[in-house]
Write a structure and sequence with these properties.
The protein is of the alpha/beta class and about 260 residues long. The protein contains eight helices and eleven strands. The protein has one domain: Rossmann fold (3-Layer(aba) Sandwich), CATH 3.40.50. The chain has a seven-stranded parallel sheet, with helices on both faces. The protein binds NADP nicotinamide-adenine-dinucleotide phosphate. GO terms for molecular function: oxidoreductase activity, acting on the CH-OH group of donors, NAD or NADP as acceptor.
């Protein structure tokens, strides 16, 4: 069976860790992001095919799908490219930030999915099955103060995932969603806080968060299930975080 997966947002964090994990388990991988130098390094390490693509630019997304089709096709897609900008209130945040979050987390996901669906259908025609997984967030399931545009974008990505599953009913294409809580990746919070490294370290201080590798292990395991098994929604949090509002700092100790 053709096991070839396209992972967007593969130049860092969860996407890069997922490419590594897929490769470990014998998958062919296509690593997609804007920063070509980082993709080249990942390709040298894992054997991935690197494709530089901004998922918010239609012509680049079309070229991505064409290159994937021309180089062997695909049976799997991970829509992981995304991120947050700012922690401002609804009242004080800027539409520019919100627009950027919608562009990448929602419209980018839609464009890549639409462009890749014919390729995935061809893969399914050859092998019997195909899979899509959208990387959303617990921020797409629970709102929090300062979440504003990121909550709105990830709620939208969650909704789009449900719509897609309904629209693909009857086809051998599973549609999965992975919604992680606190994950300590090098760039996510740094980008959200516009490069303020001191502030970006705070959410991870004195807590045991998820690592990108933890998310990647669970993500790839979903693709490794028998192809008729669809894990609709996987919510993944560190033990220290029992909700978006409850993060335990300090050691975890049994009571008694
Ligand atoms: N870290 C967390 O706590 C957390 C929790 C829940 C969900 N998530 C979600 O998980 C996903 C990955 O997060 P992460 O923590 O691994 O963040 P990250 O390290 O900042 O990775 C984001 C990736 O997306 C890519 N990207 C951003 N804009 C893009 C664009 N326009 N076109 C193509 N690629 C683009 C970036 O690469 P380039 O800059 O090279 O393009 C990068 O590879 C995101 O969707 C995020 O919202 C993260």
């Amino acid at each position: 069976m053709l096991k070839r997966v396209v992972v967007t947002g593969a130049s860092s964090g969860i996407g890069a860790a997922s490419v590594r994990r897929f490769a470990e388990l014998g998958w062919q991988t296509v690593a997609v992001a804007r920063r070509a130098d980082r993709l080249q390094a990942l390709a040298a390490e894992t054997g991935a095919l690197p494709i530089a693509c901004d998922v918010t630019v239609a012509a680049q997304v079309a070229a991505l799908a064409a290159e994937v089709a021309a180089t062997g096709g695909a049976t799997a897609l991970v829509n992981n490219a995304g991120g947050a900008l700012g922690t401002d209130s609804v009242e004080s945040s800027s539409n520019d930030d919100w627009r950027q979050m919608f562009e990448v987390n929602v419209l980018g996901l839609r464009s890549v999915t639409a462009a890749m669906l014919p390729v995935l259908r061809a893969g399914a025609a050859e092998t019997g099955w195909a899979s899509i997984l959208n990387l959303t967030s617990t921020a797409g399931l629970s709102a929090y103060p300062g979440g504003g545009g990121y909550n709105a974008a990830k709620y939208a990505a969650h909704a789009v995932t449900e719509v897609l599953r309904l629209e693909l009913a009857g086809e051998p294409i599973r549609v999965m969603e992975l919604a992680p809580g606190l994950v300590h990746t090098e760039e996510f919070t740094l980008n959200r806080l516009r490069g303020d490294a001191t502030a970006a370290a705070k959410p991870y201080a004195d807590v045991i968060p998820l690592q990108a590798e933890d998310v990647a292990r669970v993500l790839v395991a979903a693709f490794e299930q028998p192809p008729h098994v669809n894990q609709d929604l996987i919510v993944l949090r560190p033990v220290a975080q029992s909700s978006v509002f409850h993060t335990h700092r300090g050691p975890l100790t049994p009571k008694g």
